[in-house]
Amino acid sequence: MRKAKIFYSNGDIKPFYPANKQKFTLEELQKVVEGNIEILQATKNRLLIVNEGGILQKLHVNHNASNCLASQSESEIVGNAVLTDKLLIL
Prior knowledge:
Radius of gyration: 12 Å
Helix content: 10-25%
Structural class: alpha+beta
Order of helices and strands: EEHEEHE
Strand order of the largest sheet: 2-1-5-4-3
Distance between the termini: 16 Å
Number of helices: 2
Largest sheet: 5 strands, antiparallel
């Protein structure tokens, strides 16, 4: 079974599996990022799911998640984030 990773803003990284063992639901992703989601392209086949309003909510910088987009963006990712294969998103 494919898995994703949760990058917590405190530096922890944990594996993350869809509850239905197929694909993540919107609700699962919103729970992890603690709000509405924004989907960013990390690589050709990987997506980074972040909190859409994280900057306005003044969430902590997530260095591990920011590194996933280092070559694409100068802005930092804040809050918890999910790195996942495109195939795991509904």
